[in-house]
What does this fold into?
Amino acid sequence: MDESAISTEALVKTYGRSRGLTGLDLRVERGEVYGFLGPNGAGKSTTIRLLLDLIRPTSGRVTVLDVDPRRDGVALRRRVGYLAGDFTVDGRQTARELLTYLGNLRGGVPAARITELADRLDLDLNRRIRALSKGNRQKVGVIQAFMHTPELLILDEPTSGLDPFLQQEFVAMVRQARTAGQTVFMSSHVMSEVQQTADRVGIIREGRMVTVERVEELRERAVRHVEIHFADPVAAGEFAALPGVSEVTVTGSTLRCRLDGRADALVKAAAGHTVVSLLSEEPDLEELFFGYYAREEAPHVAA
It folds into this structure.
């Protein structure tokens, strides 16, 4: 029995002369939350569709929950909760009718379970789907993925359209799924939710894996833009030579800089003055991607 929930080897998908995947090697362990990151067109959605046998690979091997999706796709999909990046459904039904129907297809989901998730996400189950906003339709998608407590959750941009409060509720749902022993494979552009939920992160570019790292390691190397307000003016030169600190500017008593990696040296230097406030912007995924792309001229994969 394979210990991994998802495994691919040399996976290739071509579309005519274009290549969606160019030899992807991917391994997701059972019981972990895996963040799958990459810019638009990198191959994230293609990978997910191959895992579910919604499209077929040109070459390579895929195994999901010890099953070949091509041979046993129907049986596999009963064990998986899937949220597509372009979740669309018949708008004539109410949210309750749709979720009940989908639950019955999976062998039955208790009405209380659907109501519980709807309450958590503040969704009115009695409204017709065509009358729902994009954010509320996304809530329906999240509920249908989680409601049958699947072994594996495959989520493509799951918080698209959700407000920040509900994004935090989604984070709590993912953490609870991991505690319950479920595996979560999640593509995302939201760095904060990846940092709060994922055990490991894989970054994909042009159909191949650039790197796989634990979130703690990724966070240490992430680029941040920092703004510190001091009680009195400070000299830029005091901070410009610090490890990981660059692009230092000082306007009066406000210092702005770029921080690459750990903040230890910067924080210790700032502590020599009276700090009024400190703002560290969330790492920018595009900067993170470009940083890896610049460093990685050849494939580098860590299992």
User: Anything to note?
Assistant: The chain is about 35% helix and 30% strand. The two ends are 18 Å apart (CA to CA).
